[in-house]
# Entry
Amino acid sequence: QQEIAIQKDHKSIYDKVGHHLNEHYFVPMTATILKQYSNQLLHDLNRSYFSPLSYNDQTLALKQAKKVVSIQRKIKKHHLILRVTDKGYNFYIGTEEEFDKKAQNFFHDTNAFIELKENPFNKIQDNVIHLLNQIRAKNFIFQWQCNKMMPNRIKCQLAHLYFNPKTHKDGIPVRPIENTIHAPTTNISNYLDEIIRPIFDKECQNTTIIDGSSLIQALHQYMRKGLFKSTTLFCTFDIRNLYTMLPQEEALNILIEFLNIHGYTKVKGIPL
# Structure
């Protein structure tokens, strides 16, 4: 059981690190440094899982387990909600009634979601499979691309919505989180991101800030052009409910226009 957990943790961590380095820093997935990282990560996980705990660590673990059970009992007894906050590494605790009101306020303000009266999972999955087979039959995609985007019938689940409290905002509103990690369309989304994101990063690198390093580079270029002055102002802004305000059809049209402008009629053989 522990070996299975180690392999699962190793794959999860390695995939995230590898894809991040590949997408943002163009480090090949076959790079020697990633292989070394993989071996060291596996070694550290094995040591973490199989090394015996000291007496002090065992005592501490038992105390923490008792605290967790105590918290669970109090949450159940007083009908409380415990959630990770939207930003930071904090927890929010409140009554079920209070949290439900915040969720209802979000639905009312955005009008972006409706409550489903029946489970549409089977219909969604069947439609996705049918569509992929259809476009494959028309030779719009290769078979390996079809296989990569095909949903896994065993692992697939219906996407669902939950909320994290934004304790950094007045009134502590909630942020919607759509859990689509095992949705029928996730493999399609992941593959399209894999082939389109490098194009975006390439064409928009002069106007995109991805981390602190790229910000410093952009500031140096700004200074060399003589644009950085004592009167220069830095501004930040926040768009409320950005995700739910984006019209899907218009977003797709903008994406196609972006690709056309930069000379793409196909991406990895897939016509727009």
